[in-house]
Amino acid sequence: MRSLEALEQRLGSLGWERYYENRDIVQLHWHDGGVDLIALPRDFARFRSTHITSGDGAFSPGL
């Protein structure tokens, strides 16, 4: 992925929805209301795989 917009579009097609945003981060949650959450830096160049965790804090490499 080359941009936050492209990643958000792809995740949206998989059932993720925008949950919260501020000037530093964008958060997406799974559409079923579960505890899964993705927090992404708004500056996409700073994105690292450690920003993707499951609800229990474990890394979720399948995303």
Write the topology of this structure.
Blueprint: H1 4-13, E1 16-21, E2 25-30, E3 37-41, E4 52-53
Antiparallel strand pairs: 1-2, 2-3, 3-4
Commentary on this structure:
- Belongs to the FPF1 family.
- One of its GO terms (biological process) is regulation of flower development.
- The protein has 63 residues and is an alpha+beta fold.
- It is 16% helix and 30% strand.
- A four-stranded antiparallel sheet has the order 1-2-3-4, with helices on one face.
- Strand 1 and strand 2 form a beta hairpin.
- The longest helix is centred in the N-terminal third of the chain and has 10 residues, at 4-13.
Features:
single chain, 63 residues, alpha+beta, 4-stranded antiparallel beta sheet, globular, disordered C terminus, FPF1
Total number of distinct structural domains: 1
N-end to C-end Cα span: 12 Å
Count of separate DSSP helical elements: 1
Widest beta sheet: strand line-up: 1-2-3-4
Largest sheet geometry? 4 strands, antiparallel
Number of strands: 4
Query: SSE order, as H and E?
Result: HEEEE
Mean pLDDT value: 76
% residues in beta strands: 25-35%
Helical fraction: 10-25%
Radius of gyration, in Å, reads 11 Å
Q: Briefly note the structural class of the backbone.
A: alpha+beta
Family: Belongs to the FPF1 family.
Structure summary:
The chain has 63 residues and is an alpha+beta fold. It has one helix at residues 4-13; strands at 16-21, 25-30, 37-41, 52-53. Strands 1-2-3-4 form a 4-stranded antiparallel beta sheet, covered by helices on one side.
